[in-house]
Please model this.
Amino acid sequence: MHLFEFVFALVAMVLLFKLVSRAMHQRRVAPRDDAVNAELVQRLGQVEERVRVLERIVTDERFDLKQQFKDLEA
Model:
């Protein structure tokens, strides 16, 4: 498994876990107010930006070249 596939799978599993836990939690708790919703939207934006940065790093040609050099050293 390549690093990109591992990172993608890890991010997907974390997001899926958060979605499931949030859905289960919302069934037990009353609806949240606008301030909490705004904070959650902001945090989601931060997570999306972090995923974009990870994708950029992993798909960068220099990253692939560095990984090849590391593989040769091992």
User: Anything to note?
Assistant: The mean pLDDT is 83. DSSP finds three helices and no strands in the chain.
